[in-house]
Amino acid sequence: MSQATQRHDDTDEETLIEVRNLEKYYGDDGMFSPPPVKAVDGVDLDIKRGETFGLVGESGSGKSTLGRTLLRLEQATSGTVSFDGTDITTLEGSDLKRWRRNAQIVFQDPESSLNDRMTVGEIVREPLDAHDKGTERERRKRVMDLLSRVGLREEHYYRYPHQFSGGQRQRVGIARALALEPEFVVLDEPVSALDVSVQAKIITLLEDLQEEFDLTYLFIAHDLSVVRHICDRVAVMYLGKIMEVGETEELYEDPVNPYTKSLLSAIPRPDPTDESERTTLPGTPPSPRDPPQGCQFSTRCPAKIRPEGFEEVSEETWDAIERFREIVRERTRVELGTVDRVKRRAGLFSKYDDIDEAVKDLFDGVERPPVVDDHLTYAVEQVKAGHPQDARERLHEAFGSVCDRERPAHHQVGDRGRESYCHRHREEYDDVESAIRR
Ligand code: ADP
Ligand code: MG
């Protein structure tokens, strides 16, 4: 937001939160269990005091998990989160409790995040009670002040959440988050569940409160346009990884990472026939239990680097190969977990249960030169023989490039703290523009 930008441009650029190599894995509990879900998979971030830092990405990319891990609502698997110089991932007991006042969260869904058996007054007061702040009387007074500060009235104290509209409920959630005078607030899709007209009012409220109380925000959203309006800087997340980070306007005007480009070009235009406002990219993200070995985005990337030796292969053929590889990957994932097995049984997994049919469909009218055909034939045989893993490995060896094999580095782009996670920034591969295909 402009005022905030000015404020910290003029004065300090001090880092409030420093995240280093943060990982949060779920279900990492034994040699014989399926591989863990890598919800946050090695994240580095700096959040500056007083700024609004945006975090965007498709559903399931790990945004909420990252936000919750920064607040110690989840225990990090590894890595550090320094808050004002203190690593909070190892705090315990009274130190942890004291620190918790500093860092609060507002949830997406004001419907389910407020306890419907408590009055609004009790809900907002609860953190004050839990931390023994002031006398009875002072707490009541503080709650009344907070209610009016977020645009509610004193008589709302005795009402119940279900008597309120979505926007009002979110005001209650905000008042509660501010009760203990935190420095840092995670806003986890705070307006995603609200009508557009209400969204604007809540955003304005959040901006005013930030100004008044010197708050630092982590603003999580899947709606890229909301973020553009409110955030000073933005990080784009995919499969547990930050793909690109930079100042908001710069990143929106001139995205350098293929994932950011894809996401921005998929911003939904108002379309009366489209019920969902979801941002959709071609293909689906791989399971975070089985992320690609190289770049996380490699299975969907429109700028993926081709290996040497296939320069003569047409775009159509190459596209079909990549899609065939995705299908084979899905086949190997089937063994991974119960959820996947259920999905498969329900027919949600892949429409290509018959591998011959898949090949026929994908390569219909598409050239299959000999350099390609031998590998395809082998892979199909292996899948049929019940060895999809062998097929996957052969395809990886034959058609894999640096994008399939190596994790990219975070490359500095320009001189304003922009970073992008992509092999294309290496000198030998740096012409992303010409490579965007789909
Ligand atoms: P986002 O907020 O970007 O939609 P989440 O952080 O909610 O993403 O989820 C990231 C990944 O972690 C998803 O694959 C999700 O299914 C998984 N996940 C989230 N919470 C849990 C949990 N408590 N147990 C197991 N997996 C989880
Ligand atoms: Mg979420």
What's this, in brief?
The chain is an alpha/beta fold and 438 residues long. It contains 18 helices and twelve strands. The protein has two domains: 3-265, 3-Layer(aba) Sandwich (Rossmann fold); 315-400, no CATH class.
Features:
binds adenosine-5'-diphosphate, disordered N terminus, 438 residues, ATP-binding, Rossmann fold, eight-stranded mixed sheet, alpha/beta, four-stranded antiparallel sheet, elongated, single chain, binds magnesium ion, 2 domains
Kindly state the number of beta strands.
12
H/E element order = HEEEHEEHEHHHHEHEHEEHHHHHHHHEEH
- Give the strand order of the largest sheet, numbering strands 1, 2, ... along the chain: 6-7-8-3-9-10-12-11
The name of the CATH superfamily of the largest domain reads P-loop containing nucleotide triphosphate hydrolases
Number of domain modules: 2
* Rg computed from alpha carbons, rounded to a whole number of angstroms: 24 Å
Strand content: 15-25%
CATH topology of the largest domain: Rossmann fold
Q: Quote the average pLDDT.
A: 87
Spans of at least 5 consecutive residues with low confidence: 1-11, 274-279
**Helix coverage percent of residues?**
40-55%
Number of helices: 18
Shape by Cα distribution: elongated
CATH class of the largest domain: Alpha Beta
Protein name: Peptide/nickel transport system ATP-binding protein
GO biological process, one term: transmembrane transport
Keywords: ATP-binding, Nucleotide-binding, Transport
GO molecular function, one term: ATP binding
